Each structure stands twice: as structure tokens, then as C-alpha cells.
Amino acid sequence: MSKNELSKGYEPNDVESKWYEGWLKEGYFTAEADPSKESFTIVIPPPNVTGSLHMGHALNNTIQDILIRKARMEGKAVLWLPGTDHAGIATQNVVEKELAKEGLTKEDLGRDGFIERVWKWKEEYGSTIIGQLKRMGCSCDWSRERFTMDELYSTAVKKVFVDLYQDGLIYRGNRIINWCPRCLTALSDIEVEHEDTEGYLWHIKYPVKGAKDHITVATTRPETMLGDVAVAIHPDDPRYKKYIGATLILPVVGREILVIADEAVEMGFGTGAVKVTPAHDMNDFEMGERHGLEMINIFTPNAKINEDGGAYLGLDRYSARKAILKDLEEAGFLDKSVSHSHTIGKCYRCHTVIEPYLSDQWFVKMRPLAEPAIEAVKEGRIVFSPRRWEKVYFDWMENIKDWCISRQLWWGHQIPAWYCECGAITVTLKTPSSCSTCGSSELIQDEDVLDTWFSSALWPFATMGWPSETEDLKFFYPTSVLSTARDIIYLWVARMNMMGLKFMGDVPYKTVIVHPTVMTIDGKRMSKSLGTGVDPLDLIEKYGTDATRFGLIIQSQAQDMRFSEEKLEMSRNFVNKIWNGSRLVIMNMEGYSRDLPPEFDFADRWILSKFSSLIEGVESDFKSYNLSHTAKRIYDFFWGEFCDWYLEISKESLYSIGEDGKTNLQRNTVQSVLWTIMESFLRLMHPFMPFVTEEIWARFEFSKESIMISDWPSSFEFKVDSKLEDDFELVQKIIVAIRSIRASFSIPPSKSIEVRIECEEDLLEGPFASMLSYIKTLANVETVKIGRGIEIPAKSAVAVEGPFEIHVLLEGLIDIDLEKERLSKRLGAIEDDLKVIGGKLKNQSFIEKAPKEIVAKEEAKEAELLYERDKLLGQLGQLGS
Predict the structure, then answer these.
(1) What is the pLDDT of residue 763?
(2) How do strand 230-233 and strand 214-219 relate by DSSP bridges?
(3) pLDDT, tens digit, for every residue of 357-416?
């Protein structure tokens, strides 16, 4: 095999690592700030340093790589900036589990020792996902790889905290927050996963002091009544107006509490009277602030009853619930329990039920930051694709609450705030030598770290060297596109919008692509822990990187993408089709002269027009980021129009080599078309399938340079000819109709046939006449007669396509009597089956008692048999029955 020839089969393992290493060696991924070029920038959504590649990563990074490779081929100055996130909670959990195997805790090592251990773990395991992204063919600029805990990035994080604090946008307060009793840290509202659950609504009698009366309250969490400070009713509720201001005795505790009126109480929920526990319920906290109520925290950080819980001291929250309910029932305070569906919050990392918890934490005032970010989207400076996600964004941003940013962890960005015994807080970028108020040198730094999402909110500009005014920052910011999942519109996208506008004075990106969520085939979320996850690397090993990428993209049209491995099998077949089609072309390029002017016939002009149409369609799809549709267009063109039609038509010219000048000109013309289309098609295909296209490109020797730095085929030298395409489509339909008749009557494709085509005479004056040769070649027709009023033998099969009535002569091709017998026998069997099914469907008892899916199956079977019966009757009619 010469260096230009392709082997009979494509082997991804022989190609992928070779080319990826070559691209790295040549520096093709390395960005350069070139003012003479338009910039195109994507910052990779940084995967957790603890992570490994999952299907969401595979899809998202394929989308980004397609956009990046296309922009690079368009001659733009391209930067795809990679990196990883330190993932505070997740990473700390991983390392603590490793320590537990050694019989150690983080406290055994101390803070500095533990952080040193985490860094060691990060260096050993933290780059796993980076290697996997390279396996996916991601063309990131790895020389600019960043980490949210690297030294320069940490400086940026501290500066943002200090600046926001000095602007009055960060404050410390004793407020109720979401608390994870397992991770022992605060969580923001959007780090809480909400889950519907079946529980109970317990009705508890609260006695009125000094009277033989009570108010019954309903609660889903009786254990928190230990922290009750009031009972609230709606001021307009006629049932309870007389009790406003009354004193109640808190059951099992004995503490006196007041009845208050508040419009936030829903009269229709439960009994219309609610217990108020400001330290353990978000709504109660706000009510407590409105009425100046006491805040009693009854839980320890790990959700056990503390000293304020009296006799229940030391019990965990669920054990306390059981004990309290038992005591309430024995004392006659428990009225009843009612089954009740409600929603509980869980930690997004460990899935422990969170506890609303009163705590001293750091908060960001979000409203002043949110308003400019809302306007940026309304004004179109940031555009969501699809646009419907803008409403989701607005709904959250317009109802935004202050953000709790402190986390009770050791791994992360330690809050740059120092406390003095005088009560003052010093917030500064560098460690202060003395208190900013009293001058004391006895300062203690806040032990908490910042929420991971606080640091990742700076990603588009902190990765480029901010707060320094670097060349990268001046040239590549704002970035062009962000591709991400819908899950983190609130967690990350909204926050990047706010921080970019605040600190850079400009949006962080111009477009936000919200890519589909990859689900299982039956519509469930993928989860490795539940056994429903799929490892993309296993798919790459099985199908190759190109097929995996293309298979993901082509099925990504829906927002909830039900992953089908069959699409990857289809894509692998497509890779092989491209390989084999290219191989056929290369094998038939001998003698091709680019200096010989081509003389295009109808098929040549048709395929060139179709390719022009393809390029226009692809450009349109890219503008709307409809990459799934783009992949479908490319697939249909190459497999259908190019291989199944044009290559088949061209074979006669390709294989005709002789002294005849006309024959050789036809061959050279076909070679010219094949060369032209293959060269542009490979460039069009490259962003989707980088490896196989590079391998084929090198064998064709289209250029001495890599395909990835060739020009993107945004236009084609041949014009779209819609009339020509329509005419050829009609010929295609005629050929398909003839092939269908062959199949119906079991006529082998190798057997030549005679065809009569009835049509109006004026059709013969158009281009159709020049296409008769294609009908003969592709449908193996020996003779064809065409016109109005031509003789049609009795024993012939007929099909109608537009203005054409197509007859295939059957006499001599098949044994007519034997074929009639075969068809009649099948027809009889169908009639018998229809009687049986018809009897079932007319039986009212069957319709009513049988499962719906069984009835539907019988109805579908009846429809199929009726269709086949009509077809057989038509065939028998054509045979003269």
C-alpha cells in the first residue's frame, strides 16, 4: 500500500494518539493575542478536581471543541482556556475518607497538615479529568491551564472579597441558613436539592394559659417545637382573632409563648395556626425579625438536641421526633396525624437532609449586583440559546436573596477577615499586622472558607490574570460563548454575569448555550452510584473518539437527551463510510489533471449544487447553535447524495480509461468533482470528527499543513441551483420506485429489466431526457421507453411519481403463475389473521378487560395487515389477476 492509499478498515487506535500528539507538538492549540484578528474565546466550565469524565462533560466539551475548531479554521485568534475547580466540599470529603482508611481524622493532622495532604492528593489525582478531555480530542490551550486555588487566582478571589466588603456588598450576620449536618457547613439556597417525600402533618394542642382551651397547630417537624417562641395566625382569620395576644403553654416544654398575627400565615394550610421557630425555619426567621421574637437554637452542628432542648438533650433530630411524639400522646397533646406530601431539602453533595440553622455567616447583598446583570440580558448583550432559558434566569434574578458565602471547611479560600478582642473586624488583602480599630497585634483570621461558587464566579476574567491588566485580559475578554448545563444557570452563570459586570465593566461572554441534559434511554438521570451512568471512555474504547463525539451531537436535539448507544453504532458506521468513500476516491485519482477544464454533466452539477446547499445550511445551523441538525445534514449528504447516488453514477466514468479523448475528459471531470467535494467536505467535517478527517486529509495531500489550520468552507464556488436539484430529486424517486417494484416481486438487482414511463411530451424537452442514463445505470434497466400513449404490456407493475407513471415489465422476469400463487397464499393467511383480530376488537369484554397496551398492540397489528393486504391486492391486479 502506498502512502496515499487507505487501509480497508479504519482503526481509531492507530490514528488518534498520533495526531493529538502531533497537534500538541506543532502548538496548534496555543492561543496568541493578535490584534489583526477577531478573537474567539471560550473558558471551559471547570470540572471538579475530584471528577472524572461523565456523559455531560463529554457532550459539553464536544460542543465547545466543535465551535473552537471551526473558529480556528475561520482564521480567528482562538483561545479555549481549560482548568479545574478546587470543589471545596467534594475534595475535603474525598481526602477525609482517605484519612479514615488510615484511622485518622483531619483534626489529627491539624489545618495546615490537612491542607498539605489535600494538595498532595490534588497533584496525584487531580489531573485525571484533564487527561480524559485530551482523549476526547479537546483542543484546549493547555499552556494556560488554571486552577481555582493557584496563587494568582487566589489573589483575585481575595481582592473581590475585599472590594465587595469595602463597597458594603459583603456583610457578616446572624441569620438562618441551610446547614448540612454531615458536611458540617452552610449551603446557599441553590446548593440544596429539593425532593418530594411522603410524611405526616401532626396536629398538636397548645393550651391557653389560665383557660380550659387550646389552639391546635399542624407541623411536619414536631422536634423543632422545642425552639418555638410563638404561635401565629392570620389577622383576618375569624377562628382565632380572639386569641391574638394570648399566652400559650408550650407542650412538653412548659415555656410560655404568645399568639401573634401575621399576614404570611396561610389560613387554608393545616389548622390555620402555625408554630413559630425562628432559628429553624426560613419563613419563621423572617416572621421573627418582623415581630422582634427571640431566636432559640435547639440543635448542635450535627443536628443533635443541645442544652436548650431540656430532657431531649443529646438525641439526634429523628430520635427526638419519636420521643416528643410519644410524650405528646401520653400527655394528651397529640390530636392526630395526617398523611402529607411535602418537599424536603438535601445537600447537593452528600444528599443528607439539610437543617435550617441560625448561624453567624458571611453574606453578599445580591440585589445591587443582580440589577445590571438582568439588564445585560434584556438588552441582548448576553443571549441565551435556546432563548427560553432567559425566562428561567429572570425568574431567579428578579427574586434573588442574599448569598451565604462562608463555608465551614478547611479546603478552600480562607476568608480574608481578622478578628480582634475589641470586637473589630479587619478585612484586607494581605495579613494585617494590627487591628484597624485599636491597634492590637492579637488578631485571629476567620477559619471559614469561601463558597466554591464564589471563586468560580470570577472564572472568565480571573483565569486571564486579573487583577493585573494582562494582554490576554485586554484581548480575549469578554469571551465569546459559554456552554453549560441548565442545572447551574443559578449556581454559576448568573454569578459570573454579576461579577463580570461589577469588576470588568462588561459582560463575561456574549452567548450562553444551555446544552441538553444527558439522560438514560428511559428518561432517568444518569448516575454512576445508581448504576445508570455510562463512562464516555468505555464508549471511546469501543467506538473511537470521532464516532462517540458525532453520536452524542447528532442525538442532542432535545433538552432532555435520551442517550442511545445505537446512535454511536450508526456514527461508527458513518466514520467507516467516510473512510471507505475516501478510499474509493483515492484509488481512482490516477491520471487526474487539475489543468484540464471540466465539462460538467447533469449529475456533476447536481452534486456540486447539493454541496453548496449543505454549506449554506451548516452556516445557518451554526448561527443558531443547532449542531445536532448540522450533524444530520452532513450525515445525509455524504451517505445519501454523495455515496449512494453520485459515487454510483460516477463509477462508469471512473472505470473507463482508454484512448478516447471524450471518455478521458468525462473521467477527469468526475475526478475534479470528487477532489473538490472531498477537500471541502473533510474541512466541513473536521470540527465534528477531528481524527479521521486529519488522517484522510494527509493521505489526499490536499495541503502540507494540518486540516485543523485549513480554511473553513464558509462558501463554495458553485451556486445553488434549486431547479436542478428538484429535477434530479424526481429522477431519484423514479429510480427508487423501480427498485421498490423489484423488491416487491423478488426480482434480483442483477437482472436487467424493461421500463415504460408515461409522461407529457414537454417533459422530454427539459433536462430529464439527459438523465435517462442514470435510471438505466442505477436501476439496471436495459431499455426504457418514455412518452405519452406508449404501449404498456398487460403483465407489468406500476408506480406513480409526480407527472410520471412508471411501468416495469414482468413478463419473462418472473413465473407469473407461481408469483400469483405465492401472493394469493399470503393474502389468504392475512385474511385469516384479520378475522381473528377483528373478532377480538369487536368483543366488548376484551376491549374493557384487556390491558390498554395489549389492545393497542392488536389495533396496530390490524393496521399493518390491512396495509399489506391492500399492497398484495395491487400486486395481484398488476399480474392480471
Answers:
(1) 64
(2) unpaired
(3) 999 999 999 999 999 999 999 999 999 999 999 999 999 999 999 999 999 999 999 999
Describe the strand order of the beta sheet including 192-207 as a list of residue ranges. 214-219, 192-207, 334-347
Burial (0-12, 13-18, 19+ Cβ within 10 Å), 498: buried
Residue with cell string 458513518: 574
Q: In which residue ranges of the chain is pLDDT below 50? A: 1-2
Q: Which residue has the cell 445519501?
A: 640
DSSP state of 208: B
- What's the pLDDT score for residue 761? 66
At 268-306, the pLDDT tens digits run: 888 999 999 999 999 999 999 999 999 999 999 999 999
> What pLDDT score does 809 carry?
86
- Cell digits for 24? 500538541
pLDDT at 474: 97
Query: Strands (DSSP E) along 34-163, which ranges?
Result: 39-43, 77-81, 83-84, 146-147
Instruction: Please give the C-alpha separations between residue 80 and each of 29, 44, 385, 464, 658, in angstroms, as whole numbers.
Output: 8, 7, 20, 12, 53
What is the Cα–Cα distance from 8 to 612, expressed in whole angstroms? 30
Of the candidates 186, 203, 122, which has an alpha carbon nearest to the alpha carbon of residue 363? Answer: 186
CB half-sphere exposure, 617, CA atoms < 13 A: 18
Cα 92 from chain centroid (whole Å):
27
For residues 827 and 879, the answer to whether their CB atoms sit within 8 Å is no
Q: How far is CA 52 from CA 84, 123, 133, 525, 759, in A?
A: 11, 15, 9, 17, 64
Q: What is the DSSP string of 571-591?
A: HHHHHHHHHHHHHHHHHT-TT
Q: Which residues pair with 786 in a beta bridge?
A: 757
First to last CA, the chain: 58
For 362, left (φ over 0), alpha (ψ -120 to 50), or beta?
beta
Whole-model pTM?
A: 0.86
Cell representation of residue 274: 402555625
SS (H, E, C) 642-691: HHHHHHHHHHHHHCCCCCCHHHHHHHHHHHHHHHHHHHHHHHHHCCCCHH
Q: Which residues pair with 513 in a beta bridge?
A: 385, 483
- Give residue 657's pLDDT: 64
pLDDT given for residue 658 in this prediction = 57
Question: Radius of gyration of the chain from Cα atoms?
Answer: 37
Long-range contacts of 113-120 (CB under 8 A, 24+ apart): 114/410, 114/411, 115/410, 115/411, 118/91, 118/92, 118/411
- Beta strands across the sheet bearing 753-758: 781-787, 753-758, 804-809, 796-801
In angstroms, the CA 634 to CA 611 distance is: 10
Helices (H) and strands (E) in the chain, counts: 27, 29
Contacts of 500 (CB under 8 A, 6+ apart): 460, 461, 478, 506, 507, 508
Residue 875 has what pLDDT?
65
- In this structure, how many other beta carbons lie within 10 angstroms of the beta carbon of residue 683? 22
What's the CA gap between 738 and 782, in Å, rounded?
13
Residue with cell 402555625: 274
Cell 406500476 found at: 798
pLDDT given at position 247: 95
Q: Phi and psi for 530 in degrees, rounded to 5?
A: -90, 0
Q: Cis peptide before 386, with omega less than 30 degrees from 0?
A: yes
Alpha helices, DSSP H, located in 446-556: 452-456, 459-462, 471-476, 494-504, 536-543, 545-554
